[in-house]
Amino acid sequence: MATNDLTGSGSATQGGANIVGSGVGDGPGPDVMAASTLEDTTVITSDGEDVGKIKDIMLDVGSGRIAYAVLSSGGFLGMGDTLRAIPWNALTLDTDQKVFRVDITAELIKSEPGFDKDHWPAMADVSWGSSLHQYYNRAPYWSASSESLTGRQDPLDV
User: Fold this and answer.
1) Sign of torsion, CA 6 102 108 89?
2) What mean pLDDT is predicted for residues 87-114?
3) C-alpha atoms less than 13 angstroms from C-alpha of 53 in its C-beta half-sphere
4) What angle do CA 141, 63, 150 make, to 5 degrees?
5) What is the pLDDT of residues 24-68, one digit of tens each?
6) pLDDT in tens, 45-55
7) How far apart are CA 104 and CA 48, in angstroms?
8) What percent of the chain has pLDDT over 70?
């Protein structure tokens, strides 16, 4: 099983979400899971705040890779939600707590320009995607580099 602690010293699938925790159970997972089982998973920031739930998982159909998770926050029963794209490689699945963790503060998540269900960004736009990955300090999933923008290497590359 691929595991990783939040400091980046474990192993992870190149370009994908990291996995921490024991996470061994019956059936598939945590290395291979149905995307629908990850929807409605809570996202916790580096400062411990619950900032919402995963609403959608967006695929780059051409490459066959997961591009983004869409975080839904605010609103009530789906009305008035603010949506935010989070690069898939910025997330860590914590199988013990059954949450995603993101290495960014709640303040920075809330400062990221969001969108609503009727006005999605052009996620295939390279400049939009590059800007978003830079905001989360991650190399774009389509790039050959697996380093974060601060130079921390992906554990598989060491």
Assistant:
1) positive
2) 92
3) 14
4) 10
5) 555 556 677 778 878 889 999 999 999 999 999 999 998 888 999
6) 999 999 999 99
7) 10
8) 70
d(CA 83, CA 91): 16
Q: How confident is the model at residue 146 (pLDDT cuts 50, 70, 90)?
A: very low
Query: Rounded to 5 degrees, what angle do the CA atoms 22, 28, 32 make?
Result: 85
Q: What are phi and psi of 141, to 5 degrees?
A: -60, -25
Please name each of the domains of the chain with its CATH number. Answer: 18-139 (2.30.30.240)
In angstroms, rounded to a whole number, what is the distance separating the alpha carbons of residues 138 and 36?
25
Spatial distance between the Cα atoms of 24 and 125, rounded to a whole number of angstroms: 37
Q: What order do you get walking across the sheet with 99-102 strand by strand?
A: 18-20, 91-94, 99-102, 42-44, 50-60, 65-73, 82-87
